[in-house]
Design goal:
331 residues, mainly alpha
Amino acid sequence: AAAAAAAPTPSPTPVPAAPITQAAAPAAVAAVRAKGDSAMMVGQYAEAVDFFSKALDALPLAEEHYQTRAVLLSNRAASRVKAGDVRTAIADCTEAIALCGALGYLDAGADAKMTAGVGLTWVQRAMAHEALEKYSRAIDDYQAALRTQPDNQQMLAGLARARKMAKSLGQTDADDGKASEREYDAMKSLGNDLVKAGQYARAVPCYTRCIALKPEDSVARNNRAQCSLRLGKYEAALSDTSAILSTDPNNAKALYRRGVALTELGRDADATRDLSLLITLDPSNADAARALATLRAKGTAAAKGVISPAAAPKAAPTVSPSSSAPAPAPA
């Protein structure tokens, strides 16, 4: 109880050692974060949440700021837990963990400072789950945190407490060996929510974490490809959809999205092949039919030496809302 009552410590900003090169936070963002850290340390949690939110809004979504975003989310989550806003704290922690996964901080052999920071985020999420009496999820998180710091007494005490409460409430899914499945579901659900809100760049790390947890699953990879198309990252979309089609050559969403990516990359013959196959498999697919008709019109115009609207540069990928909607989150 004493540990839970203490003011949370702001997450450190260690020197990055991740495959994705990280940049320092913009000066304005760092200044607002400092105000949030100060407010959190003196127990002004509502004010801290406001400062961290402003810093997050001002921070670019580029990959080079993943680490800064993870720290801000973790600190905001800690403040939200103290303020009693545990549901949104869980979402903040989940997104922060996804970002850390994308940076390689959850990989074997990652820098100890990095993994320790993720461990604190898992503890924050565990405490939020405890507040909601979701003790099986709290157990999952304490166990994940302990993998980063096996002898941490706060984490060990939290795990013991969560197990005791789970047993007293008859929550039989605790310690059932399905922690990774629950984490996958949480990450995918958050990614889908972010896509629905148009936050494609923020959804990408969530789906990346899903793929790390379940490499053979095509749903998260397809959803990440959709985000890449929306962000204009056509090579990334091509890579994900090709990986799916290498084992599932008739996957409709992957065929359509690869066709779109190939079109945007100027590989019209390859795009025509994918879209034609999709229409053969599903003659009622209106999106594929439209995309194929556009490609053929472009080819006809090119053969005549005419610049058609189809050949003109496009400002955004041609992904229709119906075809780009993410797969439903698991029940």
